[in-house]
Design brief:
This protein has 134 residues and is of the alpha+beta class. Helix content is 24%, strand content 41%. The strands form two sheets. Strands 3-2-1-4-5 form a five-stranded antiparallel beta sheet, covered by helices on one side. It is elongated, with a radius of gyration of 20 Å.
Length: 134
Amino acid sequence: MRLGAAIFLAGALLVATYFGIVLTWSYSSGERAGWVQKLSYKGWLCKTWEGEMAMVSMPGATPEKFYFTLWDDRIAAEINKVMGRRVSLHYEQKVGLPTTCFGETRYYVSRITLVEEIPLAPGVVVPAPKPAGQ
């Protein structure tokens, strides 16, 4: 009986340690800029904010999509306020999370910044258009 309890406790401690490391450590971090096109709160049991941002490297180029996950409702509210405007998202890439309960992507956004200018070339910028009514 004691051996079984010790094995169970050791296994639970290993799993808790693994999740603690994976949730606090990030494989990479960085910034991506573009226009957030979609943000939805979804999941069967574990709900997370899942988003999609269109990134354009040069005018006229085909946009690349950046899919991301949010855990913070406050940041989701900030993104909803600036939807359709150019933003920069700070993200951390986490690997090793075993289920989609933590999110559908590996990219977890932790900060958003509104971008007021669009760089066309070094030293050449165009002011970002403001939404109607502002």
